[in-house]
Amino acid sequence: MPVPLKPGETLRGRYRIRRIIGQGGMGSIYLADDLRLEGRQTAVKEVEHDKTLPPNLIQEARDQFFREATVLARLDHPNLPKVSDYFSIGLHDYLVMDFVPGEDLRTLMLEAREKDTFLNEADVLNWSNQLANALIYLHNQIPPILHRDIKPSNLKLTPNGLVKLVDFGLVRVLAPGEVTITILQGQGTALYTPLEQYGGDIGHTDARSDIFAFGSTIYHLLTNKPPADARERFLNPLALASPRSINPNVSVKTEKAVLWAMELHPDARPESIAEFRDALIGDRQVILKSLSDSAGRARSFLTRTDQQLIVGALLLAGLTLLITLLG
Asked: What is the pTM of this model?
């Protein structure tokens, strides 16, 4: 385990460490003050590469880190934190991103479970729509970018209701014909990882791998229960309980879309995030709400047809009132 940085340490004469906000086997994520831009807080991701690797592979991993950091720094999307800097100190590589305030969706799910209730499906679908926007943006880059570690704890809900997909630790840039080494060697979090991703960097991962993790994340948020992982399901196809058997409030449409995304074989899943979002949300209206909008958290989605019926009813009522007044 890498030795963590201490509060007060300054990196590059610019980023003063406050505290650890995330930790893994290959490094930590720190909250830091940007001393050059007063009042700005950043998330600094530290990467220490596997020292047991041969020197040539360590160098290849570091080269890959800088190639991918360069790509990430060019990204600009409201549902992604902005990468503003990257550098090395000794054997450690660093990625600097905007600090995203708010709670992660895993925390919100655990709070609901402690209250013996479930997150509102409308809220989960609202967050899912925002996540879909971010993933469509990533997958449409040239070359495409996979996140490969989508999970509730990597989704932050800001105070104004915006969801951001954080932690680019396992990001992979899909250069045609190139064997890549991810920034952090690993396969993601087992509960949300498709079978093909267990092959590491020789595995044939593509957009459908992110779709599997996306569906698994929604499953967990709606049921308060982690899904059976792909390896367990491969050995026992009945290991995965349907979402509605755990939470009867989940709609049939949502359950069907989530289970489609979680198919074990990539060819059985939606081909793109856009196709999955259409199956999941379709014409259901999504509303961006702030955390303080407590009344809004209980709202249900209205389809466009429902909205048209409501508008029609209001117009008819208004016309009837006008006729009555004129009469």
From this structure: 0.79
